[in-house]
Amino acid sequence: MQLLTAILLSALRTAGLVVSITVLVFFLVRVIPGDVVDLLSAEGGLDAAMQEEMRQELGLQQSRPAQLGNWAANAVHGDFGDSLRFHKPVGGMVCQALPTTIILSSLSFAYGLFLGCAVAVLAVLWPKSFFPKAVETLNAWSVAMPTFCAGLLGILVVVLWLEWMPMLGNMFLAVVVLGTDVAGQIAKPLYEDLKETATSKFIMTAKAKGLGKTRVILFHLLPNSLSVILALSGIILGGLVGGTITLEVLFGLPGIGKLALDGVLGRDYPLVQAVILLLAVAVVCINWFTDIIAKLIDPRLRSH
């Protein structure tokens, strides 16, 4: 019963957060000076009467609350409108771009999770080796190097200097950059937790039974830190959204990030709103899901 109550309260908070983000983004995108009609008129061919007529057709002359109400009513039924700039259904454009973003995020997270956990475990296994320094190096890289700057560095070294691969459409390099950042966020906290748990009584008991060091870490120490990995995963997956967007733009990958940039530059309100709503739902749902899993694993968290 306590777990069910916690899940319901968490779901209500999640839904409220999604609605709040949606409303906030709706009004913020309209704070940007000008609209799609202004951009089209700047290219020539539209006089004042044609601009007025186009705004009427697109519903841009309505009040902001009226526009929000119309958009929300349609969005509830899965209709996010047509792109003002590309004259295509926004839902179809998002569905077409989504696989690229999912692949980039999934591969980056998987690579980063494996690298971060591996380095942390090896640092605990061999504390006098270079692995503890590797943990610190990964952590410093993640903190000090933004993914966009790391992507530019990768382009300078791998693409321009070594000429190993092209820049545009380079999924591999984008995964390495994002995954290394993920590894840096995981390795340090996990390493510290593993070191602290290593002094616990149940670990001492396992060692006293004659179990090997590797077996103790993999089958006793690491599973005990699963809640830490889950908590970090929720935060990291949410942060991957921003990194994915910037690297998609940088490497010319046809994902959600590129779509969002096109929408902002073109004052394409329906497109921007749909993309931001999708990203907000993804981030909030990821955090909600990891929170629920953590509560299932650790009963002490169910009262929060």
Descriptive notes:
The chain has 13 helices and no strands. By secondary structure, it is mainly alpha-helical. α1 packs antiparallel against α13 (269-297), α5 (90-125) packs across α8 (171-197) and α9 runs antiparallel to α10 (213-224). The longest helix is centred in the middle third of the chain and has 36 residues, at 90-125. It starts with a helix and ends in a 7-residue tail after the last helix. The model has no long low-confidence stretch (mean pLDDT 80).
Q: Which ranges are low-confidence, i.e. pLDDT below 50, for 5 or more consecutive residues?
A: none
The gross shape turns out to be elongated
Binned strand content: under 5%
The string of secondary-structure elements, in order, is HHHHHHHHHHHHH
User: What is the alpha-carbon Rg in Å?
Assistant: 24 Å
List the total number of helices. Answer: 13
Gap between N and C termini: 14 Å
The main β sheet shows up as: none
Portion in helices: over 70%
